[in-house]
């Protein structure tokens, strides 16, 4: 088992609240990703769970047991750090077996377990090497091996792929997911990379300013964002936002036009209307009552492999971004005016927060 529960968890450094009373339940065997901008509190949350930081208030429970005041070694948790934290004077075998040796495990059993982990991670031929002679990916595997050899209840990963190049990140991402499926242990993974989170997570926790903005599956987070912050943070290119006002007949009036929509409760009169770039369609046919059709000026086109990002401007000055297949690029020539449509069912409505 490896169920983790945060109850009103808070952490302050002086007057600054880094974690501000969060509540969260992480399921046994779940792969959960903590995602958010730099400084949102995700790494601090992980360090509180690991026992590397003291809790200011609230509780941490593992399988129902309060571990808030326990030492790190008493929590049955293993952590993989961003910089791997390998011992430079030890061999790969000694690094992997270090935790077992500290627990006074018999040398014969240590050797057996180290060999098993090395075979699982493809490190057998490197067991007598020192960390400084290994590549970044190999060092990452050693760090993971050291974590899993003890078979803890919970694995913690603090941005473990951020120091790797793009191709190696993809390779290690697949390796970590494969290990998770084979081991079945609860895994909590911190990253600021939304693509990484969307690809790996069973559920994603979006954090900002020490608070949880939303918890959900990758599909829920992307297609059903609950807050303006989540909507703007997830997606590349990011969601378009247009200021609007709600009228009595459930129409939203914007600089680019008016449209009737289903208004979420507690939206208020002043709102922000969001639409994903891929939902803005090039469309020459006659508009429907459930669409806004507008003329826009193409200001820039960027080819990104199989797709292209198109920047546009409405006569009101409103900027819009669309994503199209690369085969459609010729329809979007810089300096030309085109018609685009926005369907009401593709719009996300958020209360407008004034500074």
Tell me what the structure shows.
There is one protein chain. With 355 residues, this protein is α+β, with helices and mostly antiparallel strands. Helix content is 24%, strand content 35%. It has helices spanning 42-50, 92-102, 107-121, 136-148, 166-183, 194-200, 218-223, 228-233, and strands at 4-13, 16-26, 31-35, 57-62, 65-66, 77-80, 154-158, 186-191, 203-208, 211-216, 240-246, 251-254, 257-260, 270-275, 281-282, 291-304, 307-314, 319-325, 337-343, 348-351. The strands form four sheets. It has a six-stranded mixed beta sheet, with helices on both faces. Strands 13-12-11-14-20 form a five-stranded antiparallel beta sheet. Strands 15-19-16-17-18 form a five-stranded antiparallel beta sheet, with no helix packed on it. The two termini are 45 Å apart.
What is the helix fraction of residues, given as a range?
10-25%
Category by helix and strand content: alpha+beta
Q: What percent strand? A: 25-35%
Shape: elongated
Q: Tell me the Rg in angstroms.
A: 25 Å
Rounded mean pLDDT is: 90
Produce the secondary structure layout.
Layout: E1 4-13, E2 16-26, E3 31-35, H1 42-50, E4 57-62, E5 65-66, E6 77-80, H2 92-102, H3 107-121, H4 136-148, E7 154-158, H5 166-183, E8 186-191, H6 194-200, E9 203-208, E10 211-216, H7 218-223, H8 228-233, E11 240-246, E12 251-254, E13 257-260, E14 270-275, E15 281-282, E16 291-304, E17 307-314, E18 319-325, E19 337-343, E20 348-351
Parallel strand pairs: 3-8, 3-9, 6-7, 7-8
Antiparallel strand pairs: 1-2, 1-4, 4-5, 9-10, 11-12, 11-14, 12-13, 14-20, 15-19, 16-17, 16-19, 17-18
Helix pairs in contact: 2-3, 2-4, 3-4
């Amino acid at each position: 088992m490896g169920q983790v529960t945060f109850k009103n968890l808070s952490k302050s450094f002086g007057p600054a609240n880094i974690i501000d009373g969060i509540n969260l339940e992480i399921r046994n065997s779940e792969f959960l990703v903590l995602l958010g901008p730099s400084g949102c509190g995700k790494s601090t949350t992980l360090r509180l769970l690991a026992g590397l930081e003291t809790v200011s208030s609230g509780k941490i429970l593992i399988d129902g047991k309060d571990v808030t005041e326990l030492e790190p070694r008493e929590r049955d948790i293993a952590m993989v750090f961003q910089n791997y934290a390998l011992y430079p004077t030890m061999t790969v075998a000694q690094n992997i077996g270090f935790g077992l040796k500290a627990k006074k495990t018999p040398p014969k059993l240590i050797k057996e377990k180290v060999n098993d982990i090395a075979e699982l991670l493809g490190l057998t031929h490197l067991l007598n090497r020192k960390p400084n002679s290994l590549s970044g990916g190999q060092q990452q595997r050693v760090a993971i091996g050291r974590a899993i050899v003890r078979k803890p209840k919970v694995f913690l990963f603090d941005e473990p792929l951020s120091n790797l190049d793009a191709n190696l990140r993809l390779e290690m991402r697949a390796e970590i997911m494969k290990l998770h499926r084979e081991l079945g242990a609860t895994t909590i993974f911190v990253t600021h990379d939304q693509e990484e989170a969307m690809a790996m997570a069973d559920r994603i926790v979006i954090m900002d300013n020490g608070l949880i903005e939303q918890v959900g599956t990758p599909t829920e987070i992307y297609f059903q964002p609950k807050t303006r912050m989540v909507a703007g943070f997830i997606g590349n290119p990011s969601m378009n936002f247009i200021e609007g006002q709600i009228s009595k007949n459930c129409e939203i009036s914007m600089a680019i036009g008016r449209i009737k929509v289903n208004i979420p409760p507690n939206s208020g009169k002043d709102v922000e209307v969001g639409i994903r770039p891929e939902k803005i369609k090039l469309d020459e046919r006659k508009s429907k009552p459930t669409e806004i059709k507008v003329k826009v000026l193409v200001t820039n086109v960027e080819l990104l492999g199989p797709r292209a990002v198109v920047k546009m401007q409405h006569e009101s000055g409103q900027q819009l971004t669309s994503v199209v297949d690369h085969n459609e690029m010729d329809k979007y020539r810089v300096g030309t005016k085109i018609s685009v449509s926005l369907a009401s069912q593709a719009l996300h409505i958020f209360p407008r927060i004034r500074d």
